[in-house]
Amino acid sequence: EKEITQPPRDGVYVRGTFLEGAGWDFENGCLCEPDPMELIVTMPIIHFKPIENKKKVGRGIYQCPMYLYPLRTGSRERPSFMVMVELRSGNVDPEHWILRGTALLLALAI
User: Fold this and answer.
1) Which pLDDT tens digit goes with each residue over 20-59?
2) How far out from the chain centre does Cα 50 lie?
3) Smallest Cα–Cα separation from 18: which of 77, 94, 95, 105?
């Protein structure tokens, strides 16, 4: 966070996101198993870049849903789903994180 001194040329930096259902390996920049009794992990800063045409998702990439708040279903007036974020799945298949219900959250309270 201290290395970032100016805005990116393309896109935007987002901080303050939380990861639910997995841990984050800061050294390798990928998903990992969480520590015991660790339900939510603070994520590092994420750089969102605009892309005109998206190609297929690469191997070992988990399409992680990002929600506004923990109530994932939201409501008709206030949906919770925001965007899919590509995260490296580490040494397991992306399906592992799907079964765990791994998701990014922008807030921890409704």
Assistant:
1) 999 999 999 999 999 999 999 999 999 998 887 777 778 8
2) 16
3) 105
Q: What is the dihedral of CA 70, 61, 10, 55, to 10 degrees?
A: -120
Task: Pull the structure tokens for residue 41.
Answer: 């992990």
pLDDT at 1: 63
Q: In what order do the strands lie in the sheet with 81-88?
A: 40-42, 18-20, 103-105, 61-67, 81-88
Integer CA distances (angstroms), 72 to 39, 82, 108, in order: 16, 10, 11
Phi, psi of 84 (to 5 degrees): -95, 135
Note the pTM of the prediction, 2 decimals: 0.87
